[in-house]
C-alpha cells in the first residue's frame, strides 16, 4: 500500500486524538505507529506487546488505562481491547507522553524524537539512549516522508 495513502488514513484515525492540550501531534503519532508495527491494525499481540503501537499492559496502565466504548478499566479484556484499537491505543500513547514528556536527547526541546525514545525506552529510561535499529529506521523514514523533521 502506498505510504502516503496509509499516512492519510492514519491521520484520519488520529484526528480525534489530537488537541492543543495533548503533547503528540498527528504526524508524530503516525510515525510512532509506523515505526512500532508498520501500523499493523490487525490487533495482534507479540509476546507482551499488542496493537499498532505495540504497547504493554504497564504502558497502558501508566497512560491512565483508556478504554474502548467506556469499558471499565478493570475489565479483564480492557487492556487488550484498547491496545488493539487504533484510536484507544493512540490515546494511551498521548496519556503516556503527557505523564513522561521530557527532553531525552538533550537538545533543549521536547519533540517527536523525544517521544520516540520515551515510547521505546520508557518514561524513566530514555536519557542517553538511541532507538533500536528497525524502529529507528522506520521512524526516520516516516519523518522524512511526512516532513516532520523535529516536529512534535
UniProtKB/TrEMBL annotation:
Domain of life of the native organism: Eukaryota
Database matches in Gene3D superfamilies: 1.10.530.10
Keyword NAD on entry: no
GO BP, sorted A to Z: defense response to bacterium; killing of cells of another organism
Claim: Hydrolase is one of the keywords in the record: yes
Molecular function GO terms recorded: lysozyme activity
PANTHER family: DESTABILASE-RELATED, LYSOZYME
UniProt name for this protein: lysozyme
Organism: Harmonia axyridis (Multicolored Asian lady beetle)
